[in-house]
Amino acid sequence: MTTAIPDVTDQDTPPTTPGPDGRARARHSRRARREPSLLGRYLGYVGYFVGAGLLSGAIVHHPLDPARYNLIAAAGAALFLTAALATELQQGRPTAARLTTVLGTSLALSFGIGMLSGGMQHFEDFPDRAAALIPAGLLLSFLAYTLKEARKPLRRILGPLGLTVLLVAAGGYMGLRQVAAGMPVPAGGHHHGTTEDGHQEEEEAAHDHEDTGSAPTPPATGRQTAPAPGPSTTPGNPAAPATTRATPTVPPHGSPGHHH
Predict the structure, then answer these.
(1) What are the tens digits of pLDDT across the range 120-144?
(2) What is the pTM of this model?
(3) DSSP 237
(4) Reduced to 3 states, what is the DSSP secondary structure of residue 234?
(5) What are 216-221's contacts with CB under 8 Å, separation 24+?
(6) Residue 9: what pLDDT?
(7) How many of the other CB atoms lie within 10 Å of CB of 236?
(8) How far apart are CA 14 and CA 236, in angstroms?
(9) Do 137 and 113 form a contact (C-beta atoms < 8 A)?
C-alpha cells in the first residue's frame, strides 16, 4: 500500500510579503538609483568652478583693492559652499556633525584651490606672493579634502601620503622662492586698473586735457619766442610806443589749424 505524497506545486502558496526591513531596503535601493536632474548637476559644477575661480582672483589681487576683493572672495566661497551642500544632500540626509564637517572642510578646500590656482596663474605678476600661495594652497586643499572624504583622515594625513605632500610643498616653496628672486622686475607691472607712480601723473594730465578739450601744454625747451614786431617808434612820431606783446597768428582760411 502506497501513500500518495501531495504535490506542493498544486497547493496554493500565499504570496510572501516583505517585512519592515525588506521594505526599508527597497526604498533605500530606489532612492540610490534615483539620479539628480541634469539641471542640478549643472548648477553644482557651476558653483564649484565659478566659486573657485572667483576665489583665485580675489586671493591674488587682494592687496590692490581689499574692499573690492573681499566681496568677490565672499561670493566665490558662497557659491562653492552651496554646491558642496547640494551635493551632500543629494546623497541622503546628513547628520548635524556630518553637515558641520562638510561646510568647514568645503570652505577650507575652496580657499586652498583658490590659492593654488591663483598663484599659478599670476606667478609672473606677483612672484613673491605666488611662491607662498602655491605650496600653502596645496597643503590646505589636501588637508581639507582628506578630512572631508577619507574614512580615516588622520591616518592619511599623518601617514606616508601626508608626508609626501608636505615634502612636495616644502620643496616647491624653496624652489619657487629661488625662481622669484631671479626674475627681473617687470617694467610695466601688473595693472588691472592701476598705474605705476612714474606714469600716474602723465595719465592724470592727459585725462584732464580730454575733459577740458584743450591740448596739453608743451614742455619748456629753454628757447624763447621773439615778440612780434609792433609799430616802430620814430623820431617824428614819439606818441607811438613800441609794443612787446605778441599778437596771435591767424592761419589762412581753409588750413588745418584754422578754427571759427
Answers:
(1) 988 888 889 899 999 999 999 999 9
(2) 0.57
(3) B
(4) strand
(5) none
(6) 47
(7) 6
(8) 147
(9) yes
Distance from the first to the final alpha carbon of the chain: 139
DSSP track, 136-152: HHHHHHHHHHHHHH-SS
Can you spell out the DSSP letters for 2-15? -PPPPPTTTSPPPP
**Can you say how many angstroms the Cα of residue 15 is from the centroid of all Cα atoms in its chain?**
62
SS3 readout for 20-85? HHHHHHHHHHHHHHCCCCHHHHHHHHHHHHHHHHHHHHHHHHCCCCHHHHHHHHHHHHHHHHHHHH
On the question of pLDDT at 169 being above 90, the answer is yes
Residue 47 exposed, middle or buried by CB count within 10 Å (0-12, 13-18, 19+): buried
Higher pLDDT, 27 or 181: 181
Helical H runs in 122-223? 127-149, 153-158, 160-182, 197-212
The burial of 242, by beta-carbon neighbours within 10 Å (0-12 exposed, 13-18 middle, 19 or more buried), is given as exposed
